[in-house]
Amino acid sequence: MKIDTFSLKDKLFKNLIVIFLMSTLPFSVLGIRPDSTYVFMPQDFGLIYKEFQVKTADNVSINVWFYPAQDTTGYGSYKQGRIMKNYHADINKKPTIIICNADANSMCYHIGNVKYLCPHGYNVVTFDWRGFAKSQKWKFDKNIACLEFLKDYNAVLDTVIQMKEVDNKRIGAYSFSTGAYISFLEFSLRSEIKALIVRGMFTSYKELIKNVDRIDPERIHPYPAAFDQPEYRAIDLAPHITKPIMLIVGEHDVRTPPEMSIALLSNINSFIRDLWIVKGAEHGGQESPEVIDWKGFKQRTLDFYQQNL
What we know:
Rossmann fold
């Protein structure tokens, strides 16, 4: 399916992604920085969606936005967009992409990704981790990665596969950095996720810490000890991956460098595996792969999902 040409709308959503990536950069990969509110809402961009909450295994409420596949064209600027207040379910089941956060901000910053996926026939699901935005409050050490995020992801996936709008044989996922690691673990455990794209992925927390310590030697970078167990180490789980997967990393990413993605890819046993090293890109901010090559990012990710879902 042909992708729309680069336009003012593309620039608006590229700028939205820049804002998100710039705001998360100082806390990227390690450390948690939740937003308490939504700076943008889907209706500000003319998007049809429904909002609901799911319960985790430990009884925590997680806030979810479900966007049905839809035409996202036909408006001027995002402030002048049509506002869709009423959601009506489409009984025709569609492939669905689950997008999760990294470790900062809220799900409202994923609207740019929603805008380019929905017109191509995909439902999109975004959600907030516990302690973020309208998800239930949660007390955690903001300097340590949160193992409980796995429970949040599982609760969302368990709900999504039961939705009448969702073709539960065609579920894909996307995330980056800390979210990519959580998504990778879920991808290895849950057969319902059929295809995965991760950006800024790392082999293990232990190896990641070595890089982060070099970048910020004045700060201590703790993480849950459980992440050192084989069942939580991406490099140990890689040989069990037999489903389609795509890894994206910036050429100059020093937090999660290309060598990490290469190591993972070499251990993955899928017949469909791809690696895109984005020239000139870094880990986040204005030099992230999405910003350096937004058109390429859209094209490659859409191609991957269309071929594998």
